[in-house]
Amino acid sequence: MTVEITVGEKIRQIREMKKVSIEELAERCGMEIGMVQKIEQDKNIPSLAPLIKIARALGVRLGTFLDDSNSFGPVVVRSGEHHKGARFTSQSSEAREHLNFFSLAYDKAGRNMEPFIVEIEPGLQSDYMLSSHEGEEFIYVLDGEIEINYGKETYTLSKGDSIYLDSIVLHNVHAANKNSARILAVVYAPF
After folding, report:
1. C-alpha to C-alpha distance for 174 and 42, rounded to whole angstroms
2. What is the number of structural domains in the chain?
3. What is the largest CA-CA distance in the chain?
4. Strand locations in the chain, DSSP E?
5. Which of 71-80, 117-126, 153-162 ranks highest by mean pLDDT?
6. Containing domain of residue 49, as a range?
7. Same domain for 168 and 123
């Protein structure tokens, strides 16, 4: 039987291995201690931006929290074999909209990009939290329709549409029209 380690547990393990206190990690990330504690205890489903900040503060790739990175050669992922890596939210922790990330490079060690299939569940609110992080994102809509708040602009994308954006600009990706959507997302966050 395989025991799956959660994102929060991996963060805690890496933090402790590097002998970084939770207070020091929170300070390095510019986050409240309580927020970091909730993430480590899996009581708060974070958005991607805080995870990137935590990864940078700990000196690891974002993918370190999502996988075990075994292979240095190419990694082939067959249809239907996506590895479920993590679940994030695009709203406050009380919100009902979530993003389910399925890694397309789960076993690839030393990668600089994070490719995912992302299932976006619709939310009941419209108060989406904008976030930013260093890097770039490429998004291609596979099914449904999504809305992207990017700076002061809003973009609606349908099946077959794509967008390439700078992640440093405040942004949010969520389902449009209260329907689920599915996207291919490739995130590059410089280490």
Report:
1. 22
2. 2
3. 48
4. 83-89, 98-103, 113-120, 136-143, 145-150, 153-158, 162-166, 171-175, 181-188
5. 153-162
6. 7-65
7. yes
